[in-house]
Amino acid sequence: MKQVLVRIPMELYDSLKMHTIQNDTSISAYVHSLICQDLGMETHKNFITISIRIPEQEYAQLKQAVKESGLPIKNFVEGLAAEDLKHGSISGKFDAENTSGSSRMLSFSTDKAFHKAMKQRAAELDISFQDYIKSLIYEKTH
Description:
This protein is of the alpha+beta class and 142 residues long. It has helices at 10-22, 27-39, 56-69, 73-87, 112-125, 129-141; strands spanning 47-55, 103-111.
């Protein structure tokens, strides 16, 4: 996959963000569907892109755990979420020792129903979706 970066006016961004929230989708998925429609291509409506920013140190530990598991990052993180959804394995909110410094973006596509279940689990834990994913990773890597 390739990334496309565009600059848009703040008002357009605000409208776009509100539209995606109301339609329970991501900006990435929405723009992808618009491009596919315009080009007459099939869209992947059952998938949504998850993007989170994690501290560089946590990312390095995630990469090591992924390497040891032999799975792609997407499958590794989805496996952590599936385990938590099944057994309630998270014991607390992500709290890195050092959040200063650089961070990395982690992005992958997942099934919308699975995404919804993860969002519901985050709500049950009273944490943001971003913190939920970070907590899954942190608990596995520490």
